[in-house]
């Protein structure tokens, strides 16, 4: 069962990844990362119990009691009928609460997703929250979501515990009722004592699979709830169709044409482009500028077919891009973005992303052309150095040169530069500009820029305005025109001058309040190391320390748990005494009455033990989640990673 479950999970993960690639950024841009991760990671993991334990036990619980019951009928039909009645009650009683369990499981899944998404968002943006003095506000929001998660969890537990309590009571009462009827039939000579003993022993096995199913019932509901999130992703559709039958394979620079392109993002009130028309000749270097929101990024997304236009045509080398397969279309582009994304892995892995089959010599040649070879050689392991998550072990300029090397290695005929120099300091700008000049040689280049100095040397500049081309020409021509481009250039010149004066003023003030990241002290690092190697005994002691404030509830859990075991043991003992009394011909009525009292008591004690234990555990988890964020917030731990 577990082997099959693992194979199902592996297949499901592959289907999910394929679907994510198919849906693309257009779909996931509308979703929170935490929500998606909960479905993709934890949701799939929760299905392990569903497929590996719940489903097999469901069949076992349905078939095993039936086979045992048929043999019991062969031995003694009346006592077997009593077992059947109570077994059906134990099986069907929890189903009365399935509706509430399903609702609760869905509500809990939603609450968990909301908390996970908020927590991940808060950790990733903790530096920003602290800079604006809003980390305490986010902490309060997280605390509310943690408590909401606790409430929805207890709702699920309440529905599950009620079904469990009724099932436990039914099982205990079934054993008592069967023993009572069997004892009477033995005393009346209608049944042999050995038959009663065999039926009682088999009766334990009748209820065992039902009890195990009951223990897994909640996991089944959780699995179904997790499946809903997974299936919603698998069932999602995108308007983008990869049904192009032609293959675009350009050996040299190609022209790019937008013909009367209209496009609006889903749910947007205004069009991003309204009749956009322009043509770029093969090998031409074009700057595309405009105020924020003018549609610069949208042009990139349309070119790469992350979206399709609502109307109009986009042509590359005279061919409509919708007639090309997505794979062949995107092979024609190399992109260098403002925020370079490096994957966790080596420097070489990240450069080779541009051409996975490239030789070591080609990788090193690309790095050299990107002015990256010198700093790579100085890294501890050279090209085999791990760059860290998002390339955090490298500086911004180094990451940008890795991105340029990646684009050089790709050797695509069309180059897209998205604010490639906007976040680079003056020291690295000249070095990176040299690398970009090498990269642009012989390629059709689209330079998207907010900082207009990046496009001054372009062959032609397109100025966007209100979803269309407002102006076009060289830098000199546009400045002479005195229109939108001239106003943007003048505004940036004033901003640069004002920024320089502000920096000088800040340097002169020593009392300017700043937000500093708190350093990680040596003691903190040692604590982390000790925690990683503390072993199970140390972890147990540590967790007990967290439980200490709840010692009253913990003590009650122990008391009810021991009492429950005593009650179930007592039922067995009293049953044995009743059988012995029947055999000896002694009175046994008082023993049967004792069993009738102890049976529901055992079920009630089991319910109380489970409720108090889970209530304590989930309250503790809520407090620990809140305390964890408060610890990170106080230490600014995330800001220094």
What brief labels describe this structure?
single chain; 641 residues; alpha/beta; Rossmann fold; 3 domains; 6-stranded mixed sheet; 4-stranded antiparallel sheet; 20 helices; 10 strands; 65% helix
What order do the helices and strands come in, and which of them pair?
Layout lengths: L1 H27 L4 H43 L1 H16 L5 H27 L1 H6 L3 H53 L5 H43 L20 E8 L9 E8 L4 E5 L6 H8 L7 E6 L2 E2 L5 H5 L2 E4 L10 H6 L7 H10 L3 H5 L18 H15 L3 E5 L7 H15 L3 E5 L11 E6 L2 E6 L1 H7 L2 H25 L13 H11 L2 H13 L3 H34 L4 H47 L6
Parallel strand pairs: 3-8, 3-9, 6-7, 7-8
Antiparallel strand pairs: 1-2, 1-4, 4-5, 9-10
Helix pairs in contact: 1-2, 2-3, 2-4, 2-7, 3-6, 3-7, 4-6, 4-7, 6-7, 6-19, 6-20, 11-13, 13-14, 15-16, 19-20
Give structural notes.
The model is unreliable at 499-532 and 637-641 (pLDDT under 50). The chain folds into 3 domains: 2-236 and 540-640, ABC transporter transmembrane region fold (Up-down Bundle), CATH 1.20.1560; 244-332 and 412-475, P-loop containing nucleotide triphosphate hydrolases (Rossmann fold, 3-Layer(aba) Sandwich), CATH 3.40.50; 341-408, no CATH class. The chain is built from 20 helices and 10 strands. The chain is elongated, with a radius of gyration of 35 Å. A hairpin with a 2-residue loop joins strand 4 (311-316) and strand 5 (319-320). With 641 residues, it is of the alpha/beta class. The strands form 2 sheets. A 6-stranded mixed beta sheet has the order 6-7-8-3-9-10, with helices on both faces. Strands 2-1-4-5 form a 4-stranded antiparallel beta sheet, covered by helices on one side.
């Amino acid at each position: 069962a577990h082997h099959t479950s693992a194979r199902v999970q592996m297949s499901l993960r592959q289907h999910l990844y394929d679907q994510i690639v198919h849906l693309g950024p257009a779909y996931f841009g509308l979703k929170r990362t935490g929500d998606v991760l909960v479905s993709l990671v934890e949701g799939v993991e929760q299905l392990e119990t569903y497929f590996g334990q719940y489903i097999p036990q469901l069949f076992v619980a349905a078939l095993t009691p039936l086979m045992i019951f048929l043999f019991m009928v062969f031995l003694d039909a009346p006592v077997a009928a009593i077992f059947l009645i109570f077994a059906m009650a134990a099986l069907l009683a929890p189903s009365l609460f399935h509706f509430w369990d399903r609702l609760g499981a869905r509500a809990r899944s939603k609450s968990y997703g909301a908390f996970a998404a908020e927590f991940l968002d808060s950790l990733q943006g903790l530096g920003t929250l602290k800079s604006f003095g809003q980390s305490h506000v986010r902490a309060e929001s997280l605390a509310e979501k943690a408590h909401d998660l606790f409430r929805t969890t207890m709702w699920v537990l309440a529905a599950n515990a009620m079904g469990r309590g009724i099932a436990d009571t039914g099982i205990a009462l079934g054993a008592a009722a069967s023993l009572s009827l069997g004892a009477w039939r033995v005393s009346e000579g209608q049944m042999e004592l050995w038959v009663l003993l065999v039926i009682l022993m088999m009766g334990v096995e009748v209820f065992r699979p039902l009890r195990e199913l009951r223990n897994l019932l909640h996991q089944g509901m959780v699995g179904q709830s997790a499946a809903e999130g997974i299936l919603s992703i698998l069932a999602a559709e995108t308007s983008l169709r990869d049904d192009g039958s032609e293959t675009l394979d350009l050996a040299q620079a190609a022209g790019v044409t937008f013909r009367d392109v209209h496009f609006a993002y889903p749910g947007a009130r205004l069009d991003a482009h309204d009749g956009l028309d322009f043509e770029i000749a093969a090998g031409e270097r074009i700057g595309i500028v405009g105020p924020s929101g003018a549609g610069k990024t949208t042009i990139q997304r349309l070119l790469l077919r992350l979206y399709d236009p609502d109307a109009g045509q986009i042509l590359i080398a005279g061919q409509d891009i919708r007639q090309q397969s997505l794979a062949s279309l995107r092979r024609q582009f190399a992109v260098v973005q403002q925020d370079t994304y490096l994957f966790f892995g080596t420097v070489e892995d990240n450069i080779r992303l541009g051409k996975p089959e490239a030789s070591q010599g080609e990788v090193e040649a690309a790095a050299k052309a990107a002015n990256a070879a010198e700093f790579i050689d100085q890294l501890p392991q050279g090209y085999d150095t791990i760059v860290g998550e998002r390339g955090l072990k490298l500086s911004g300029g180094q990451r940008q040169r890795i991105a340029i090397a990646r684009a050089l290695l790709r050797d695509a005929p069309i180059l897209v530069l998205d604010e490639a120099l906007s976040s680079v300091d003056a020291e690295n700008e000249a070095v990176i500009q040299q690398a970009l000049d090498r990269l642009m040689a012989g390629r059709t280049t689209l330079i998207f820029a907010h900082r207009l100095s990046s496009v001054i040397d372009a062959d032609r500049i397109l100025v966007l305005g209100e979803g269309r081309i407002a102006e076009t020409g060289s830098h000199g021509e546009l400045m002479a025109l005195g229109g939108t481009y001239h106003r943007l250039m003048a505004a940036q010149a004033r901003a640069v001058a004002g920024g320089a004066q502000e920096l000088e003023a800040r340097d002169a003030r020593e009392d300017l309040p700043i937000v500093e990241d708190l350093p990680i002290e040596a003691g903190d690092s040692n604590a982390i190391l000790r925690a990683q190697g503390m072993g199970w005994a140390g972890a147990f002691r540590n967790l007990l320390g967290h439980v200490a404030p709840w010692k009253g509830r913990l003590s009650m859990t122990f008391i009810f748990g021991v009492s429950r075991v005593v009650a179930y043991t007592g039922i067995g003992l009293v049953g044995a005494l009743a059988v012995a009394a029947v055999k000896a011909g002694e009175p046994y009525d008082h023993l049967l009455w004792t069993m009738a009292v102890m049976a529901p008591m055992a079920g009630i004690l089991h319910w109380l033990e489970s409720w108090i234990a889970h209530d304590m555990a989930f309250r503790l988890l809520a407090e620990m989640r809140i305390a964890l964020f408060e610890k990170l917030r106080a230490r600014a731990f995330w800001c220094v990673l």
